[in-house]
Amino acid sequence: MPNQLTVAEKKAGWKLLFDGKSLAGWRNYKKPSPPQHGWVIENGCLKLEPNSHAGDIITLEKFNDYDLQWDWKIPAKSNNGVKYLVSEERGNSPGPEYQMIDDAIEIPAKRQTASLYDILPPKNAKPLKPVDQWNHSRILVRGNHVEHWLNGAKVLEYELGSAKLNAAIGQSKFKDVKNFGEKIEGHILLTEHNDEAWFRNIKIREL
Predict the structure, then answer these.
(1) Which of these, 67, 91, 95, lies nearest to 82 by C-alpha position?
(2) How many CB atoms lie within 10 A of CB 43?
């Protein structure tokens, strides 16, 4: 069953960030309450309705070191993402983003699915499912070490605060965002890009 933890997962410290029934634990970015439209519960999934202008949503809690996993799917030509180490003080660039997009769109590798959006590309041979099929993604943050996984394969890893990462940030749209590549305790954020997107089984284990 979706949005449920096994006994073993509970014992290992996993907890759900989405209960399959409500937006409990979430609120709009820079707002005190969850959105009143656009982010809806449908068939046990969290669905972002297209062109709803519902805004990004973030977890009420902040996290430091963790294993974050979730399932997602999008239609053709759609774009979404999950941001992490999110600080609301950064304005429109609150944190690094695990990109989720239809890779059939002609875009640079550093903006394709599972990239560190606009900064670092994923490995070329990544196991992305076709549009409208469920993918399973994972972000691992342990100290300064970060990994992006897609459907069971590690497709990207990097070190926060490293010279390599900072050089890549310097060539990105985030080059003027203060401390963008540094380790902080932050929120998890689901983006709203006007396109339809579906989420389920959003869970986290703090390390």
Answers:
(1) 95
(2) 9
